[in-house]
């Protein structure tokens, strides 16, 4: 069975992988060093998706600190490097869906705002690295999502026009990047909690199971 897109770009955290527990550990280690109270994982989940600096600034503001992300970023990166592989998990059905897309000959890539040094070790640890032909992360390019450039760069690498690629993500950041790139977008319902209402967005679909990606309708011609 064929697939109605020439290539698929996937967000990472909240779409393919749940790494919120490890990110929470890193945040709390940083807060502890600052003499600040820890935060719970549910709260950290709502902060993930817009990049490390935004996550850190939000955590520090929540804790009542006047320190900035720029000041503490090197220490946080060390803590997250130490926490990266403690307990990440692949969402149900994701590995099987990637395997089927590979079987159908669909090129795939990862487009994430996670810092670049952490992406390859995480994918390798979880056994997902061989599915992807390219990766763009924070630091790969000057721009990051919701700027369209990361998506357009990957489309070029996969030798597919943007309108023939599909972006799959869990957040407004993914949605806005795809719209700016002229790329169809599917949103997943199992991602991190946030105020963005997935089902009110003009997405091609909102899916509740990874396997639902395999049965998408053929998109209208651009």
Describe the SSE topology.
Blueprint: E1 7-10, E2 17-18, H1 20-33, H2 41-45, H3 52-62, H4 69-83, E3 89-90, H5 94-103, E4 108-115, H6 116-125, E5 134-138, H7 149-157, E6 165-169, H8 172-181, E7 185-188, E8 205-207
Parallel strand pairs: 1-4, 1-6, 4-5, 6-7, 7-8
Antiparallel strand pairs: 2-3
Helix pairs in contact: 1-4, 3-4
Keywords:
DNA polymerase, domain 1, 2 domains, Rossmann fold, 222 residues
* Global Rg: 17 Å
What fold name goes in the CATH topology slot of the largest domain? Rossmann fold
Number of domains: 2
pLDDT average, as an integer?
94
Which sequence of strands runs across the widest sheet? Answer: 5-4-1-6-7-8
Name of the top-level CATH class of the largest domain: Alpha Beta
**Which percent range fits the helix content?**
25-40%
CATH architecture of the largest domain: 3-Layer(aba) Sandwich
Q: How much strand?
A: 5-15%
Number of DSSP helical runs = 8
**Main sheet properties:** 6 strands, parallel
**What's the β-strand tally?**
8
Output the CATH homologous superfamily of the largest domain: HAD superfamily/HAD-like
Structural shape: globular
Question: How does this structure look, described?
Answer:
By secondary structure, the protein is an alpha/beta fold. The chain folds into 2 domains: 7-18 and 88-215, HAD superfamily/HAD-like (Rossmann fold, 3-Layer(aba) Sandwich), CATH 3.40.50; 20-83, DNA polymerase, domain 1. Helix content is 38%, strand content 15%. The protein has 8 helices and 8 strands, in the order ββααααβαβαβαβαββ. The strands form 2 sheets. The protein has a 6-stranded parallel beta sheet with strand order 5-4-1-6-7-8, with helices on both faces. Strands 2-3 form a two-stranded antiparallel ribbon. β4, α6 (116-125) and β5 (134-138) form a beta-alpha-beta unit. The model has no long low-confidence stretch (mean pLDDT 94).
């Amino acid at each position: 069975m064929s697939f109605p897109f020439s290539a698929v770009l996937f967000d990472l955290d909240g779409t393919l992988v749940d790494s919120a527990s490890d990110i929470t550990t890193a945040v709390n280690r940083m807060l502890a060093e600052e003499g600040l109270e820890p935060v719970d994982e549910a709260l950290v989940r709502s902060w993930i998706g817009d990049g490390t600096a935004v996550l850190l600034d939000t955590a520090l503001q929540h804790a009542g600190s006047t320190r900035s992300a720029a000041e503490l970023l090197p220490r946080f990166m060390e803590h997250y490097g130490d926490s990266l592989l403690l307990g990440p998990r692949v969402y149900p059905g994701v590995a099987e869906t990637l395997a089927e897309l590979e079987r159908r000959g669909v090129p795939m890539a990862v487009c994430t705002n996670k810092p670049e040094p952490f992406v390859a070790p995480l994918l390798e640890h979880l056994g997902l690295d061989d599915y992807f032909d390219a990766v763009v992360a924070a630091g790969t390019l000057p721009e990051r999502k919701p700027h369209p450039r990361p998506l357009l760069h990957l489309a070029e690498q996969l030798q597919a026009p943007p309108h023939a690629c599909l972006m799959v993500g869990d957040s407004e950041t993914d949605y806005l990047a795809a719209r700016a790139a002229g790329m169809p977008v599917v949103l997943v319902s199992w991602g991190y909690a946030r105020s963005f209402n997935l089902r009110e967005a003009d997405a091609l679909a909102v899916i509740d199971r990874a396997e639902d990606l395999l049965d998408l309708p053929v998109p209208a011609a651009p």
